[in-house]
Amino acid sequence: MVAKILIKRKFKKGKTPEILSLLYDFRSGALKQPGYISGTTLVGHPDPRTVLVIGTWQTMEDWLAWKENDTRKSFEAMLEIYQEAPTEYEEYLLGASSSI
Asked: How many domains does the chain have?
């Protein structure tokens, strides 16, 4: 079942070029992963320091494999330097299931 992952970060002010470069590298890494479908990056209004990434994966297992990937953990550690708070994750499956 398709998985939608919401990843929310709030960045410190003044490091936009570094942050955008890391986000680009992050997305490039995800593109190479099995099960990756797409990603959308949203910038908060009125606070552009808040960034929400919505990732789409073929399965939750594909996402969890990428989440635990050493390369991804390295990107995450680099981004955390520029963040005001820890990254927040929300994980969803597309559609209703019989477990509701």
From this structure: 1
